[in-house]
Automatic annotation (TrEMBL):
Keyword Transmembrane helix attributed: no
PROSITE patterns, per the entry: N6_MTASE
Protein name: N6-adenine-specific methylase
GO-annotated biological processes: rRNA methylation
Keywords: Methyltransferase, Transferase
PANTHER family in the record: METHYLTRANSFERASE (PTHR43542:SF1)
InterPro entries on file: DNA_methylase_N6_adenine_CS, RNA_MeTrfase_RsmD, SAM-dependent_MTases_sf
């Protein structure tokens, strides 16, 4: 009950904006829930995905969903808080080409997370960040070091896509 899976309509719209197919790249699904966004990304050509969630039940669902994909070895599942996960990636020297941010609607800290990813050098130049929020999140079109690619409403969901400009 604590997971709010992305609807198929919203997921399809997201991938129409950023894809629809990819020639590699590493993805971070930071509030993975069911793992659906990163699973879709890998099925469309992303090289690998790191799926992070702090809920035990969500981790179980993610692992079950990964197991039925054609390439379960392309996923690394981490049970931890999102902020701790960012520290983990710094220590491991892992950087990302795609980031899916779909935090619980009541606990959105997307701008702070993006700032932290930039500070910790976790984003490759040109990285694409897909944010799924409630309408009340009111994310800006452009952010320092990010270009706003697109923003679209789907019912109570707002999808905002940014591209990292790289270190300035």
């Amino acid at each position: 009950m604590k997971t709010r899976p992305t609807t198929d309509k919203v997921k399809e719209a997201m991938f129409n904006i950023i894809g629809p197919y990819f020639a590699g790249g590493v993805a971070l699904d930071l509030f993975a829930g069911s793992g659906g966004l990163s699973i879709e990304g890998v099925s469309r050509g992303m090289t690998a995905a790191y799926q992070v969630d702090r809920q035990y039940q969500a981790i179980k669902v993610i692992k079950d969903n990964n197991a039925v994909t054609k390439n379960p070895d392309k996923f690394k599942v981490l049970k931890m808080d999102a902020w701790r996960a960012l520290e983990y990636f710094v220590k491991k020297g892992i950087t990302f080409d795609y980031v899916f941010l779909d935090p619980p609607y009541k606990k959105q800290q997307i701008i702070a997370m993006l700032d932290e990813m930039v500070t910790k050098k976790l984003l490759n130049p040109g990285a694409v960040i897909v944010c799924e929020t409630g309408l009340e999140a009111d994310l800006p079109q452009d952010l320092p070091q990010f270009a706003g690619l697109r923003q679209a409403k789907y019912g109570i969901t707002l999808v905002t896509v940014y591209q990292y400009k790289g270190a300035e």
